[in-house]
Amino acid sequence: MFHVFSLIWTEDLRWGWIILRKMIEFLIFIPVLLTIAKYENFKIYLFAFSLGIFFTAIFILLTYSGHPISLPYGKGASLSPFMSSTSQGVFFAFAIFVGLSETYRNLKLDSKKGRVHSFFWVIFVILIAVINFNSDSRVGYIASLIALFVFFFMNFKFRFFLILFSSFMFLLISFSYNYSETFKSRVDLANAEISQYLNGEYKTRSSLIQRLYWSEKSIEIIRDNFFLGVGIGDFKDEMSLYAKEDKTDIRPHANPHNMYLLVFSTTGVFGFLSLLSIFFITMNKTYKEKNNMKKSYGVFLNLVFMSIMFSDTYLLGHFTQLLLAIFLSALYSKPYITQNENFNNYSKI
């Protein structure tokens, strides 16, 4: 709603409508999906999602082996042929969480069938983890560690959780850093760029330095336009003024690659609070939830999106907004009531 209101004081209406259309896609998805998606089918959704990720992984392996699949988003060995690395890292991290959860659930069945299913889920997790930590998606690394954190935290006692999570995180990071050139180069580059920026050496077009610069200037925009923001179409124009004033060759961008700063700087404090309310409401529902499966997935989805939105605008046009909308809708949809059940409930009144 605040995005619509901010069009009133937006000077660049053309770009404002583009941003509004991207945001409306997410805001419309959830109400529509809440009427379609059902928690009774949640396992079916998870299986369909996992199957899709598995075939995506196969395509990536074909690319590694020298047989790339030529599709619109396939830009290299580290990317899925179906989506950019911006979305791929998050999708694969969610797949890791699904695989870990299903492995543990099947092991608890204590049956031959459960052990067989667990074996295949373990293979799935290893495959996806290897690809994700060999990609160039830094957010994929972070999201995968969050998947590990939530899985161990939700399923084990605190002391055991600390031991398991710390051990797995140490092994995963050590193995990836020593055996994945892509992971090592991305981590080393991030450390170098942060040091450069802190020393004032940011006259460059490197990805991380640009994001740090945009974030810094976004905070200045927020300080000067706290209540109403600059309008959803004017962020790039405001950033151009700062770049000109600082005499830097960092190009102005339409968003700061930070969902919180974008919303706050363009729609003000009220728009920012409306964004936070989405996660406040869903986290509140998750906290009160007694079903452990719903609680685990609710915690993961909320925590991972609240974290990764510091690094990009994941509710603004990426495939990730659809991922969040589908699974949040399935988790928090009302239970399906048959016509007979509805009649019986009515007859008791």
How would you describe the overall organization of this protein?
- The protein has 349 residues and is mainly alpha-helical.
- The chain folds into 2 domains: 1-36 and 193-334, no CATH class; 39-180, no CATH class.
- Helices cover 73% and strands 0% of the residues.
- The chain has helices at 2-5, 13-36, 42-64, 85-108, 112-132, 138-155, 158-179, 181-198, 207-224, 235-246, 259-288, 292-308, 319-332, 339-347.
- α3 packs across α5 (112-132), α4 packs parallel to α6 and α12 packs antiparallel against α13.
- The longest helix is centred in the last third of the chain and has 30 residues, at 259-288.
- 35% of the residues are buried.
Put the structure in a nutshell:
The protein is built from 14 helices and no strands. The chain has helices at 2-5, 13-36, 42-64, 85-108, 112-132, 138-155, 158-179, 181-198, 207-224, 235-246, 259-288, 292-308, 319-332, 339-347. Residues 74-78 and 337-349 have low confidence and may be disordered.
Structural class designation: mainly alpha
First-to-last CA distance: 38 Å
In percent terms, what proportion of residues is strand? under 5%
Instruction: State the major sheet.
Output: none
Quaternary class:
single chain
Number of domains: 2
Comma- or semicolon-separated keywords:
mainly alpha; 0% strand; disordered C terminus
